[in-house]
Amino acid sequence: MERTETLIVGAGVSGLAAAAALGDSDYWILEADSEIGGYCKTVVRDGFVWDYSGHFFHFKHPEIEAWLRARMGDQAVRVVERRSFVDYAGRRVDFPFQKNIHQLPQPDFIDCLYDLYFATQARAGGCAAPEASFKDMLYTRFGRSICEKFLVPYNEKLYACDLGQLDKDAMGRFFPHADLTEIVRNMREPDNRSYNATFSYPQGGAIEYIKALASAVQSERIATGEALIGFDLARRVARTTRRELGFERLISSAPFQRFAALSGVAHDPSVFSWNKVLVFNLGFDRKGPDDVHWMYFPSREIAFYRVGFYDNIFASERMSLYVEIGLRADVRPDVPQLRERVLADLRKVGIVQQQRLIAEHSVVMDPAYVHITQASNAEVARLRAELARSGVYSIGRYGGWTYCSIEDNIVEARALVQQLQHRTR
Ligand SMILES: Cc1cc2nc3c(=O)[nH]c(=O)nc-3n(C[C@H](O)[C@H](O)[C@H](O)COP(=O)(O)OP(=O)(O)OC[C@H]3O[C@@H](n4cnc5c(N)ncnc54)[C@H](O)[C@@H]3O)c2cc1C
Question: What's the 401 CA to ligand 1 centre distance in angstroms?
Answer without folding.
Answer: 11
